[in-house]
Write a structure and sequence with these properties.
This protein is an all-alpha fold. It is built from 17 helices and no strands. The termini are far apart.
Length: 336
């Protein structure tokens, strides 16, 4: 039933008043009051559809023709939440095949992939269908990502599907596939962290940390200018400062990037965070940072001086956040 309007072509519009199935319906015009200041110039087909919709909606007619009217109204304005809400009432009353309804929403999504009402409705349908819908929902979001890899609605829906309906088994591999295609895809990095921390099959963050740190550092080595793996690396310690300080792989990764003397902004920022947690840098790290400074920057003595030097370099390399690095520098004496 839900797909009954998919063949409707507004370019060959047949007025509802000419259709026998609506012969007994009295259209209900929109009430703009006696003297509308700026009357909206609606298209005739849109106006007629909404007039007929209001008539059935006001009488709470939950019928196949009401479902057809919601399909038509959605084709004109997919953001009309009242129409979507009424559609759900009609679907329940008719005990409609909700698998067909998934097909209808997929059809609407082709031109409205960032429509809030669409995604809310899709979730409602999937929830009604239960775990049997999990695979189809995951495939649906895959199709969306092929067009827009960072569609927030699709990612939010995918996470809900995993938690509510299942389908975790191959999700980490899917994240790896997306990052292999585009290592700068911050949405895929976010999803990977979600899977590592939420999947019932992986054992949690602590169990996955060691391998994931290696994964993040490999991505950093390839593209040190990519902020996403640096943020991912930070999140893997989840405020467990001792674990971060005791993991030599992090400062070693920073050092490799710094020695290359290019694209080192995030490496310096990570080292600054470590210093503020009490990290004691070795002489090689100190010398490498010194080599990045300008000749008139002065000598580095204490860790506090080193932190200030890092802030100074970052202020130069990251001018958009120069004020932030100045503020960080002002806090180093108390935190380093």
């Amino acid at each position: 039933m839900a797909s009954s309007s998919e063949g409707e072509d507004r370019r060959a519009w047949v007025p509802l008043g000419s259709r026998p199935e609506f012969a007994d319906v009295t259209p209900l015009p929109q009430d703009d009051g006696p003297s509308p200041v700026v009357a909206i110039a609606y298209r005739d087909d849109f106006r007629e559809t909404m007039d007929y919709f209001r008539s059935l909606y006001s009488s709470r007619e939950l019928s196949p023709r009401a479902l057809l009217l919601t399909s038509l109204a959605i084709s004109f304005n997919p953001a009309n939440y009242t129409v979507w809400h009424f559609r759900r009432q009609v679907l329940e009353a008719l005990d409609a095949d909700l698998n067909d309804e998934l097909g209808f929403t997929e059809h609407v999504a082709k031109g409205n992939a960032k429509n809030y009402q669409l995604w809310h409705h899709r979730r409602w349908v999937a929830e009604k269908l239960g775990s049997d819908a999990a695979y189809r929902e995951l495939e649906f979001t895959r199709k969306i990502f092929c067009v827009d890899a960072k569609n927030y609605h699709a990612w939010s829906h995918r996470q809900w599907v995993l938690q509510a309906l299942g389908g975790w088994e191959n999700e980490l591999d899917y994240c790896a596939q997306l990052l292999e295609e585009d290592v700068f895809n911050n949405s895929a990095w976010n999803q990977r962290y979600f899977v590592v921390t939420k999947s019932p099959f992986l054992g949690g963050l602590k169990a996955m940390r060691d391998s994931e740190v290696d994964y993040a550092i490999e991505a950093i080595n390839s593209n040190p200018e990519n902020e996403s793996p640096w943020r991912y690396l930070h999140g893997l310690y989840n405020d467990e400062n001792d674990a971060r300080l005791n993991d030599s792989r992090v400062p070693s990764a920073c050092l490799r990037v710094l020695k290359a003397k290019r694209n080192f902004k995030f490496a310096l920022s990570t080292l600054l965070d470590l210093l503020c947690l009490g990290f004691k840098p070795n002489q090689e790290i100190r010398d490498t940072i010194t080599s990045l400074r300008t000749s008139d920057s002065g000598e580095v003595g204490s860790d506090s001086d080193l932190a200030k030097s890092i802030c100074s370099i970052l202020g130069r390399e990251d001018p958009m956040r120069a004020n932030y690095w100045t503020w960080r520098s002002s806090k180093t004496s108390s935190s380093s």
